[in-house]
Amino acid sequence: MAFIDCHFFSESLGISTSMYVILPQPTTRQIGMETRAVKEKHPTLYLLHGLSDDHTIWMRRTSIERYAAEYGIAVVMPTVNRSFYTDMEQGYAYWTFISEELPAVAGSFFPLSGEREDTFAAGLSMGGYGALKLALSCPERFAAGASLSGATDIVNLVQEWQTAEFQHIFGDLTKIRGSRNDLFHLAEEMARSDGTKPRLYQCCGTEDFLYQDNVRFREHCRSLKVELTYEEEPGSHEWGYWDRKIQAVLQWLPIR
Known about the structure:
This is Esterase family protein. It contains 9 helices and 8 strands. It is of the alpha/beta class.
């Protein structure tokens, strides 16, 4: 695998920003590493970080490079700060960045497939929210979305935390329910749609503080008859759990 620390200017943010990218590289002499790779453009996973982290965290806390090598998939890891993958009320347009600009920019820099069937999103905690938001909002461009210990019930989360930071991100907090930032609402829209639907994956540890939020989202999807792969097991909000589950996500992805 090739590893790129990429710094570039974002038009939608109006600032320079960063992403880590790992790309499949066919090798025959690299000890301890066998990489599946195609000569054409690579299937791509946009792998999103949580609230307190940045684009470096998946490489620092897991063996994502080694895991991805087995599947011949490129992994793009952007930074979005504490934005909840949202066009912030007082701040930057991170939803526009992550949903529109980043795939275009990354695809212009690297040999990434632009086909829907080759494009996936996954993330942990805040990033799990972002990954499901991408899959549910952009089903014509993302074939699958996976949430690991995700902040799936943003309405409940902002009510519990009651922080000024959420007002800077979302604006009027009473208007989140039923908006484009509400995963429950997006799932309802997708259920009513006759269009192409992405595959969805959700997991959460039973000791995680977000466990009940995840259960509510699971039950909501089941009530809508939205197809969802759900897994739970003992575990809390920590990297040992996410290191295990990202391997399950890669195995679950419909990589061609």
